[in-house]
Design brief:
Radius of gyration: 17 Å
Number of domains: 1
GO molecular function, one term: DNA binding
Pfam families: Y1_Tnp
InterPro entries: Transposase_17 (IPR002686), Transposase_17_sf (IPR036515)
Largest sheet: 4 strands, antiparallel
Strand order of the largest sheet: 4-5-3-6
Protein name: IS200/IS605 family transposase
Helix content: 40-55%
Order of helices and strands: EEEHEEHEHH
Distance between the termini: 44 Å
Organism: Pseudolysobacter antarcticus
CATH topology: Alpha-Beta Plaits
Structural class: alpha+beta
């Protein structure tokens, strides 16, 4: 059994599988941006006392397994990560002609599922997502 986290009056294990995409599903998550973004996500999650346990950035979407304490809503943490990372990306990689806090990088919304007893299965899915996508693309080409 996994070790439970604790707050002052609770023991908890709240893990979520979250998927979100860039606006217009642009294929912009590659190269230096891909390596840099993983560290940015980890720092932002840490600011909300959350921990990214597994993650994979594809060229057009992000998968992550994240542990969020029950005192924070999932939407609050994901909104914070998406918002602050978009501002950071705009300031770091965008043009510096104006303030980029109003620009949007991520599309609205996200997919979330709770992780219960199938945590190992979800971790394997996240790790092998890129390989599976390529395999499915190859199968669709033959139809």
């Amino acid at each position: 059994m996994d070790e439970y986290e604790s707050l002052s009056h609770t023991k908890w294990e709240c893990k979520y599988h979250i998927v979100f995409i860039p606006k217009f599903r642009r294929k912009s998550l590659y190269g230096d941006l891909r390596r840099h973004l993983g560290e940015v996500f980890r720092q932002l999650a840490g600011q909300r006392e959350s921990r990214i346990e597994e993650g994979h950035l594809m060229s057009d979407h992000v998968h992550m397994l994240i542990a969020i304490p029950p005192k924070y809503a999932v939407s609050q943490v994901v909104g914070y990560i998406k918002g602050k990372s978009a501002i950071h990306l705009a300031r770091t990689y965008g043009e510096r002609k104006r303030n980029f806090t109003g620009q949007h990088f991520w599309a609205r919304g996200y997919f979330v599922s709770t992780v219960g007893r199938d945590e190992a299965q979800i971790r394997a899915y996240i790790q092998n997502q890129e390989h599976e996508d390529r395999r499915l693309e190859q199968l669709n080409l033959w139809r």
